Amino acid sequence: MCSELGNQKSRDSTREHLLAAGLGLLAEKGYQGSTAREIARVAGVTEVTLYRHFRSKDELFSAAIAEEAARVTELIPELSGNIEEDLCSLARYMNEQLSAERDRLIRVLPELGRHPEMLGQNVAEAIQQFLDRLSSFFRYYQQSGDLTSDVGDEVTAVFLGPMYANVLMGDVAGIFAEFDYEQYVRHFLDGYRKPKQTD
């Protein structure tokens, strides 16, 4: 039993090293420059070991991207019923994640467009889970009467769009600015909080 658990942990650890190596090389060298041999070398394993875990580098890339999407989904906070606190938490988590992964995102996103073979079913499902959970977050506050429902699900893009622009275009023409979560949420709510009914 202990031996089986040890073997499983070793397999999981090897898989994690392969995924990290693949994503790192994809960002550094692009799809064409990231060979299975190079991924295995960076992960500290043989190419044979890589193929025991993944049938191809496309499958490896797909798994790595899907796991990244799932990890970001977990950053979406549980609903507390306090819209300002929840939006501040969401803004902080998303901005911190985007900032930490900025260079990788800038390099990997174009590669996904050029090589759709990396976008397997698991990537589509992981991205859809992220979008569904995010939509549920905003829909909850629309249904509770805290947010206007006039813009529907587009409110998600309205909230996240400026954060993406701030992080991903941060070095362009020196427009990067420190992100103030509370001020950002206040401005958002100024435009999208549902007006209170008056008698």
Biggest pleated sheet: none
Highest-level CATH class of the largest domain: Mainly Alpha
Question: Which architecture of the largest domain would the CATH scheme give at its second level?
Answer: Orthogonal Bundle
| CATH topology group of the largest domain | Tetracycline Repressor, domain 2
Q: Looking at this structure, what is the CATH superfamily of the largest domain?
A: Tetracycline Repressor, domain 2
Q: Could you list the spans in which at least 5 consecutive residues all have pLDDT below 50?
A: 2-6
Number of distinct helices: 9
Arithmetic mean pLDDT: 86
Q: What helical percentage do the residues reach?
A: over 70%
In angstroms, what separates the terminal alpha carbons?
69 Å
**What's the number of extended β-strand segments?**
0
Strand content: under 5%
Order of helices and strands: HHHHHHHHH
What does it look like?
This protein is mainly alpha-helical. The protein has helices at residues 2-33, 36-43, 47-53, 57-73, 83-100, 102-114, 121-143, 154-168, 181-192. α1 crosses α6, α4 (57-73) packs parallel to α7 (121-143) and α5 (83-100) runs parallel beside α8. It is elongated and about 65 Å long. The termini are far apart.
